[in-house]
Amino acid sequence: MSTRRVTVACSPDADDLFMMRALLEGLIDTGPYRFDITSTPTDALNHLASGADGPDVVALSIAWFPQVSDRYLLLRHGGSMGEGYGPIVVAGRPMAPADLAGRRVAVPGTTTTAARVLALALAEPTGGAGYAPVVVPISPYERIFDAIRAGEVDAGLVIHEGRLTWADEGMHEVLELGRWWADDTGGLPLPLGGNAIRRGLGPDLAPISALLRASIRHGLADRDAAIRWLLAKGGPLRTPERVGRYLDMYANHRTLDWGDDGVHAIEVLLRRLGHDGPVAFAA
What we know:
D-Maltodextrin-Binding Protein, domain 2, 6-stranded mixed β-sheet, 11 strands
């Protein structure tokens, strides 16, 4: 039987690695498919998906998906969604959301869902004044906190693991975007990132999608071992409790399927960002 190489690009964050662990470690039978999995930060993934030679499967920001929907379909699994929580704006001193008007705010990339939702949130309390985004690389994760302390920026938009460590850095919460979104939409969850699969895969699309879902299911069923594996890889979350809390937030039952309300939330978010067309999901 000939083998079929499948290229996958995901982030190096705990939720993405959790989803891919069974494929990375050979813990499930993948038949003729061999997965070549690489990782890079979210903003870079969005740009990678926009290139002519994008990977077969890519983790990207939901806000960026319309930019690549001519070549990719969104999978119903592999997503991260905030349920009344999400990216958070922090500062080195107490501030109100309205204080962010025109201020320099560190962001992990202008293509990210977090940066786009922050613009939506600030359009209301600041009369549309918005904010001045300053791209600060997400790796190393401490860089955003260092930028705030050094006065390079006035505040920082924290995603991924930094979402759980900002208080350790002596920061103050300014705006919780997941909570703002839920309040503003009548309780909808906030779709942040998802996995997209290349349209041109033809008959390989369905089995590849099934194997990706099987890897997520394996992680959920073998969660304690997955947490130990993540801890051994190092990173900002250094205790089983913190890794577990992070996975509770971003690698859970929603990761197996967005759910109908999750799909609706994606549609609402993209409409608010100016994209009126239907969202193309893989069957």
